[in-house]
Amino acid sequence: MPFYGILAVAALAVTNPLLEPWAGPHGGVPPFDKVKVEQFQPALEEGMARYRREVAAIVDSKEAPTFENTVAALEDAGRAFNQVHEVYSAWSSVMNTPEFQAVERDMAPRLSAFWDETPQDLALFRRVQAVHASADTAKWTPEQRRLVWLTYRSFVRSGALLDDAGRQRMARTNQRLATLSTTFAQNALADESRPVLLDCDADLAGLPESLRRAAATEAVAQGQEGRCAVANARSAVADFLTYSDRRDLREKVWRNYDSRGDHGDAHDNNALITEMLALRAEQARLLGHPTHAHRKLEVSMVKTPERAMRLMEQLWTPAVARVREEVAAMRKLARRAGQKEDIAPWDYRYYAEKVRKAKYDLEEGEVKPYMQLEKLREGMFWMAGELFGLDFTPATHVPVYHPDVRVFEVRERASGRHVGFWYFDPYARPGKYNGGQTDVYRIQERFRGEVTAIVSNNTPFVKPAPGEPALLGWRDAQTLFHEFGHALHVLGSNVAYPSVSGGRVVTDYAEFPSKLMEHWLGTSEVLGRFALHHQTGQPMPAALVAKLRKAATFNQGFYTVDSLTSALVEMKLHLEGGRPVDPDAFERDTLRRLGAPEAVGMRFRMPHFGHVFASDAYAAGYYRYLWADMLAADAFEAFTEAGGPYDAKVAARLRANVFSVGNTVDPFEGYRAFRGRDASLGALLRERGFPTKEAAPVRAKSTAP
Asked: Residue 480 CA to chain centroid, in angstroms?
C-alpha cells in the first residue's frame, strides 16, 4: 500500500464510527445512521490488527496455560473486530449495493485468511491443548468445561493437528472458498433484481386488488411507472402463481425465479459450485473424513449423513404419495377448465387453491385479508409475553439503516430488566437477501459484566401501496413467526460466555426454536386477537378458523417434497467426495432417480441455493429444517398434552432447557430435560397428515462434557 494510502487508512481508523464504542443506552446500538461503505475496509483492517495484538498477548504470556488466561482470554479477544463485522454482515444481507459488493469481493479472501490465523497458530493451540488436558476441570463450572471442549474441538476441526503443508493448503482453500461464496451470492442477487414487467390492465387477471396495487408500486420502485412488476422475490412470486389466471405469465414468472444463477451468462453459478464442491471435498480428506458431508455432520445432532438421509427418506415416500393424490385432484379441475397440459410447477399453487376451495370451502383469498403484518407482529409480541414474560416497546431513538426498519426495546415483564433490542426489516427491496433471515448484532453474555442482545428479523414481504396494510399469505405469516423464534432464542439467552450464547448451538438444533414458534400462529388466542380484517377490524370468524384447522394438512405433500428435493440433492452432491460434478446434470439425474414429481419443482435449485453455496453454513445441512420440524412437532405436543399452547409449566421448562441455555448443554440432554424423553417422528407424521408409522425415538450418545 502506498504511503498516502496508509495515512488515509490511519486517519479513517481514528474517526471511523464503526470502531467507536456504540453510543446510546444499555451498552449502545450500531451506528447505522453514520455508516458509509468506504468505512468498512479500514475498520475491518483495524479490527483485525487489534485482535492479532490480543492473541499475541495470550501466546506470549509467561504463565502456565489456564482456563482464565487462555480460553477465557480468547473469549474476551476480538471485541472491536466483532463489532465491525456484525455491521458489515448486516450490510451484506440488507444493503448490498454495487459499491458494497466491491468491498466484499476485496475483503472475502482477506477475512478468510484472518479467520485461519487463530486456529493455525500452533503456539496458541498448544496452550488450548494444555488447558483441555488440564487436571483442573473439577474447579470449572459445567459451562466452562463445555467451552473448553468446544474451543479445543474447533481448533482441531480447523486443521490445528495438520502438518505445515496441510495447514497451508487448508488456508488457501478457505480463501478461495470465501471468494467463490461471495461471487455466488452476488450473482444470485443480480438475478433477483430482475422483475417480470407486466401491463397492468391485461396481465393481472385473477390477482386481488391489493396485489395489483403492490405490483404497480414495485414497478415504480424499478423505475417503470405506469407498468406493473412482479419482483423476483419468493413472496411476490408465490402470490402471483397462486392467483394469476394467465398460465403463460405464471410460467414466465416461475421460470424467472427458478432460473436464478443458471443463465449461462456472467452471473451463472454452475462453475462456481463445481469448484466449491471440489475444494470442500479436499478439505474433508485433509481432516480424515470421507466427504464434506461427513465432516460437517460429525458435530451435528444426527452425527452422520447416512442418518440424515434415513430421516429424509422416511418422509419422502409418504410425501410423494400425497403429491400424486394432490396432482390427481388438480388435474381434474384443470381439465374442466380446458387445460390440456399436465400440472406443471407454475400450475401447482394456482390449482391447489381451487382444490382447497372445492374440498374445504377455503381459499387463501379468504384468509389473507385477516393476515395484516402489523397485527401479526403485535400477536408475536403478545405470544412472547405469555410464554417468556417479555414486553416489546418502540425504540424510536435508535438509528436504522433504511426507513423500512423499526426497533423495539425488550424488557422482562416481571422485573422491568432490559433484555435487548429487536430490529424489524419486513419488506423486499434491491440489495436485500431474498428470504427470511435473523442477524445478531450483539450476543448476550455476562462474562465481563452483563451484556444484552441486539437482534434483527429480516423478511422479503411485498411492500404494500402507500397507506395500505401489508397482507400476508399463511406461509409468509409462518415465516414471520419462524424468524421471531430465532430472535427469541437470542433474546432469551442467559449464559456467561459469548461463544455458547443464544443460537450458537449445533447446526441442526438451531432451527428447532424457530420451527417451534411457527405453531403459535394457528392458536385460537393469536387468531382471535390479532387476525383482524384489514377493512372492518373484525376478528377472523370462527367458521373460517374451523376451516383452516380442517385444512391444516392440505398440500403437505407439495411443501414436503418441495423442501426435500433441495435437501436430498445438496446432500448427495456433498457425498460425491470430490468427483467432478456438473450441477445442472447432477440435479436432473438425482431428481429422476428419486422419482421426484415433476409438478412440484424445487424450493431452491443449486445455482441459487444461497444457504449452501453463499456460505458453508448449511452445506450438507438443509435437512436440518426437517430435523427441526420433527423436534418442533414433538415439543408442541408437550403443550397440547398439558392442556394448551400457553401452559405455564411447559413454557417454563422450554425457557429453562432450550431458550436460555444456548450451547452450554448437549442438545439431546437439553431436549430430554424439557420433554422428559427423546423426540420421535410420530408427531411430525401426524401433523402433516401422513400415515402414522411411529418411528423409534431419536437418540444419540454424546461425547461432550
From this structure: 12
The reply to whether 406 and 493 lie within a common domain is yes
- Residue 512 and residue 388 share a domain: yes
167 and 198 together in one domain: no
Is there a contact between 571 and 620 (Cβ–Cβ < 8 Å)? yes
Q: Measured between alpha carbons, how far is 576 from 68 in angstroms, rounded to an integer? A: 43
Spatial CA neighbour of 605 closest among 635, 568, 579, 641 = 568
Tens-digit pLDDT profile for residues 271-302: 999 999 999 999 999 999 999 999 999 999 99
User: Can you tell me the distance from the alpha carbon of 552 to that of 631, in angstroms, rounded to the nearest whole number?
Assistant: 19
Residue 164 clears pLDDT 90, i.e. is over it: yes
Between CA 218 and CA 207 the distance in angstroms is 15
Q: Are 383 and 355 in the same domain?
A: no
Number of Cβ atoms within 10 Å of the Cβ of 320: 18
Class of residue 180 by CB neighbours under 10 A (exposed 0-12, middle 13-18, buried 19+): buried
Give the number of domains in the chain: 4
User: Phi and psi (nearest 5°) for 578?
Assistant: 100, -5
Closest CA relative to residue 628, chosen from 662, 671, 661, 665: 671
**Residue 467 sits in which domain range?**
369-527
- What pLDDT, in 10s, does the model give residues 616-631? 999 999 999 999 999 9
Q: Are residues 236 and 169 in the same domain?
A: no
300/313 Cα distance (integer angstroms): 19
Residue 134 lies in a domain: yes
Is position 647 within any domain?
A: no
Residue 177, sorted as left (phi over 0), alpha (psi -120 to 50) or beta, turns out to be alpha
Residue 627 within a domain? no
472: in domain: yes
Is residue 698 over pLDDT 50? yes
Residue 133 has pLDDT above 50, yes or no: yes
* Mean pLDDT, rounded, of the chain: 94
- The CATH number of the domain holding residue 467 is 1.10.1370.40
Q: Are residues 158 and 235 both part of a single domain?
A: no
d(CA 146, CA 211): 51
pLDDT at 704: 63
Distance of alpha carbon 440 from alpha carbon 455, whole angstroms: 4
Same domain assignment for residues 374 and 517? yes
> Could you give the residue numbers annotated as active site?
483
Cβ atoms within 10 Å of 584's Cβ, excluding its own: 16
CA-to-CA dists, residue 235 to 38, 292, 353, 476, angstroms = 33, 32, 16, 7
| 143 and 10 part of one domain | yes
Q: Return the bridge partners of 198, or none.
A: 228
